[in-house]
Amino acid sequence: MDAGRLAKRVCVIGAGMAGLAATKVLREDGFDVTAFEREPAIGGVWIASRTYPDLRANISGEAYAFTDHPFEVNDDYPSAPQIRAYLDSYADRFGLRRLIRLATEVIKVRHARSQSGEISGFEVTVRPADDPGSPQTLSFDFVVICNGIFSIPRIPVIEGRSDFAGQVFHSSEIGNFEFPTGKRVVVVGAGKSALDCAALAARRGALTSLIFRRPHWMLPRFFFSRIRADKLMMTRFSELFSKYHRMTRAEAFLHGPGRLLVHLWWLQSETLIRMHLGLPAAFRPTHSLRADFANVGAGGEFYDLLRRGQVIARRSNVSRFTRAGLELSTGEQLSADIVIFATGWEQSVPFLAPELRDAVQKHGRLKLYRFILPPREQGLGFIGYVASVACQFTSELGAHWLSQVFRGEMKLPSTPEMDAEIARVEHWTAQVVPDRELGYFVLPCMAHYADELLCDMGIAIRRKGNVFAEFLAPFWPARYATLAAERRQARKHDAAD
Hints:
Layout: H1 3-6, E1 9-13, H2 17-28, E2 32-36, H3 80-93, E3 100-101, E4 104-113, E5 119-128, E6 136-140, E7 142-145, E8 152-153, E9 167-170, E10 184-188, H4 192-203, E11 207-212, E12 218-219, E13 222-223, E14 227-228, H5 229-233, H6 236-239, H7 249-254, H8 259-277, E15 297-298, H9 301-307, E16 311-315, E17 318-321, E18 325-328, E19 333-335, E20 338-341, E21 345-346, H10 354-360, E22 361-362, E23 365-366, E24 380-382, H11 391-406, H12 415-432, H13 446-457, H14 467-472, H15 483-496
Parallel strand pairs: 1-2, 1-7, 2-3, 7-24, 9-20, 10-11, 10-20, 11-16, 12-15
Antiparallel strand pairs: 4-5, 5-6, 8-21, 13-14, 17-18, 18-19, 22-23
């Protein structure tokens, strides 16, 4: 690629984990990168104002690290402050801060056009987050969207909210909120954040209730008091028991004639979880762990509080707000001073101009090849839009993949072929992760997804010296610490040819 190509400008939208990874990879690949972050700090969902006390990652620091920047903490499951410190160290080590404009909101992305009307990159309009009257429009050759799948809190619209005399929060908004002792707190939801918020309120002395429709599976942080859960669950061997949309012959046998083995694997996993967490009757899922993996978190502290009576749980829907609290679908009136909705997130790209939105989205669903690239807008990429338990890892690999596309170093399938692949993958996600209506979820098939990206990039898939280490050792990002160097070496080899 010529020097002019390497100097092309890239706009990165967002400076969470995905945005930081994209900024680093693209800058190291020779692009002129500018990142915009609407918050006053880097970190995305991990910034102080969006995390609640006692929040920890679902996996260890070894698993929740970038490939070439070890997570040097002693805690097995890092806390939110530790993760913030880690992201700060990543930005400082690789000189990313000078490339990031904080407290700057992107309000419009549209095609730039020449005087003849031909598309010539993108125009990106930004404004200071504290001064909406001062927009600025800049030109870029490429745009990478990293605002992520956890950017817009989802709070259901419920009748009577304006009549409620108390306070309403999303779980991402409680920050360092001090729950007054004796106040009545109601948490709505059944995922990890809901259980965390209920446990937090109860430990602060609030009179706490949890309203949920269906319990979800949770993992203990440790099996047998000493074996960390991610060491067992994040291996190539464990992935054999999850059906991916593209399988080897051995996997096809396992999920066909050998499916009894798959059933037994998941059955013993569920038995171990029940044994270690001592799940109360109301929180024993009737659906399989395999079908619920999209909602799995780690930790069992909530169940201890529930057994001690410090949290009251009710399985019901919320029908409406009343002035004094909530009315449930059972007809019960529940008094509340504070209501916290741990009800997930919306996925939205409101800054895309209509012509771009129409090209990348259909029926509210993004159409992305490899969960990264819109087939009809190949100067536009999405990083961090595939959900996994190690989002920093899949984001970093995706950034390497997208950089090769932008550099013109990857031969892509035709647009119809990419469309067909997207449709095939959507069919798979509808079967294996029905709770993820948008379908962007690859856990527990993260190694399979990594293999696809590396195959496309022409990089070796097997990273260990022997088959036992490759399949049985934990699948940590450090396996890919030399990925950038391998890509540079491949580039030199191609140039020599």
